[in-house]
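Here is the promised in-class demo. Please do not try to memorize the tokens; focus on the logic of going from shape to residues.
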């Protein structure tokens, strides 16, 4: 069951949202737990004085809350989000602060982890020129009432992350360069680490029927206690070729993943995917969009000199069908709603839904 309320005051300068959901489900028939009922709720208020967008949001999702509309919804969590952003000419500036914790019932038999920290983002977007963005994020984490006899280690850490990226888009090609650095300082628990990464990508579209996208990622991770350094590189190549417009498409994706440790053996993995797809949407107009694909997969893994697992390959015939099959008639909610639904909301309940399914 779900209910959402929205309001606008002062000619839309002050906006508010309130959402509530209730689930009553038996996720495992035949067990001793039986049916479980729980709630989720969300409140948000936003305003835009003097060209500055301000927002505050609170979310609470119960431990046993089940969402059919959003199965990946993170449960058992309280979250507070604060944000402020503005645009000045070609520049944007956004500030944010997040706070969250799990174990919303504060069950002392279970650990409770709290995370909090700020985010700062600056962007520069000048037409016909490369765009630039830089972001700084800090996350402080600590844990409470951890029963170490169960093998769970209490955590207390500070993680600082800085990322920067430059991208340039043209009609037939684009390029981007992203880099980042993360420092994890553990007061309790694991050992301190630092991580640096660099990603470069290039896309080329000489015609509407062909595109090729090579990419390369390099990652360096260091354990600051043992001084161990691990390098990981991942080159990729993706191509798409439309053989027959809107009918037959050839797609390939190649990647190579290599990891090296100082003073230790290296591991590598090579994968290749080749797929030919026949789109048959014209066969069933205005009802479904079927597609038939012939896919070839190949994987090769190596772990150090002389250690290699058998190559793996497979040929698959895949049939995909996107069918417009409404579960309920299009007018089922007219008796309850004054405005049409706008999709699934953050707590996984269709907005404005007040009717029982």
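The designed amino acids, position by position:
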């Amino acid at each position: 069951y779900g209910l959402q309320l929205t309001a606008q005051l002062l000619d839309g300068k002050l906006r508010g949202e309130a959402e509530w959901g209730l689930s009553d489900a038996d996720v495992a028939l035949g067990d001793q737990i039986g049916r479980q009922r729980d709630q989720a709720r969300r409140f948000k208020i936003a305003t835009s004085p003097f060209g500055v967008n301000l927002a505050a949001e609170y979310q609470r999702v119960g431990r046993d809350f089940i969402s059919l509309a959003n199965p990946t919804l993170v449960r058992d969590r309280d979250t507070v989000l604060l944000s402020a952003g503005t645009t000045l000419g070609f520049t944007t500036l956004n500030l944010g602060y997040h706070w969250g914790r799990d174990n919303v019932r504060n069950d002392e038999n279970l650990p409770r982890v709290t995370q909090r920290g700020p985010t700062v983002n600056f962007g520069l977007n000048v037409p016909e020129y490369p765009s630039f963005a830089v972001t700084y994020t800090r996350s402080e984490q600590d844990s409470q009432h951890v029963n170490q006899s169960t093998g769970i280690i209490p955590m207390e850490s500070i993680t600082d992350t800085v990322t920067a990226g430059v991208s340039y888009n043209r009609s037939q090609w684009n390029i981007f360069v992203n880099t980042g650095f993360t420092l994890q300082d553990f007061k309790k628990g694991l050992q301190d680490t630092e991580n640096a990464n660099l990603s470069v990508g290039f896309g080329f579209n000489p015609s509407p029927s062909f595109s090729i996208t090579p990419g390369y990622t390099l990652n360096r991770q260091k354990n600051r206690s043992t001084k161990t350094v691990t390098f990981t590189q991942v080159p990729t190549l993706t191509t798409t070729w439309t053989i027959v417009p809107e009918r037959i498409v050839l797609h390939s994706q190649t990647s190579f993943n290599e990891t090296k440790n100082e003073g230790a053996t290296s591991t590598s993995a090579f994968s290749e995917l080749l797929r030919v797809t026949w789109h048959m949407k014209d066969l069933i107009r205005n009802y479904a969009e079927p597609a038939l694909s012939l896919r070839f997969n190949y994987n090769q893994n190596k772990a150090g000199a002389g250690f290699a697992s058998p190559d793996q390959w497979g040929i698959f015939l895949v049939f995909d069908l996107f069918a417009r099959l409404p579960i309920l008639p299009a007018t089922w909610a007219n008796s309850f709603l004054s405005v049409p639904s706008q999709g699934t909301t953050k707590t996984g309940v269709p907005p404005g839904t007040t009717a029982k399914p």
